[in-house]
């Protein structure tokens, strides 16, 4: 959320997550940046209705909070045409 504030961008926060509502909101608002946790990316790519929505406005995606499965990343990138970058594990110390 800090990036959107810093860039004075429009931020769309969905208080109650329903995948069909999220897909509709993406199609209507045409965001270029999308941030979510891996479980949400997985829910989007496995949703049967995703093919009915235009998500091509998404150019940059950030994932964090848990490891992002490579299959989910590849499928999301294929659906949107955007680049999905995983940010999980960047703060852990290696011993």
Description of the molecule:
The protein is an alpha/beta fold and 95 residues long. The chain has a single domain, classed as Rossmann fold (3-Layer(aba) Sandwich), CATH 3.40.50.980. It is 38% helix and 13% strand. A 3-stranded parallel beta sheet has the order 1-2-3. Helix 3 links the parallel strand 1 and strand 2 (60-63). Helix 3 (38-46) crosses helix 4. The longest helix has 11 residues, at 19-29. The chain is globular.
SSE layout and pairing:
Elements: H1 2-6, H2 19-29, E1 33-36, H3 38-46, E2 60-63, H4 70-80, E3 83-86
Parallel strand pairs: 1-2, 2-3
Helix pairs in contact: 3-4
Question: Low-confidence parts, pLDDT < 50 over ≥5 residues?
Answer: none
Determine the fraction of residues in helical runs and give it as a percent range. Answer: 25-40%
Order of helices and strands: HHEHEHE
Tally of DSSP helical segments: 4
**Broad structural category:** alpha/beta
Q: What would the CATH topology be?
A: Rossmann fold
Q: What's the end-to-end separation, in Å? A: 31 Å
What is the number of E strands?
A: 3
Mean pLDDT, nearest integer?
A: 90
Q: Write the CATH architecture name.
A: 3-Layer(aba) Sandwich
Biggest β-sheet strands, sense, barrel? 3 strands, parallel
- The neighbouring-strand order within the major sheet is 1-2-3
The level 1 CATH classification is Alpha Beta
Measured on Cα atoms, how large is the radius of gyration? 14 Å
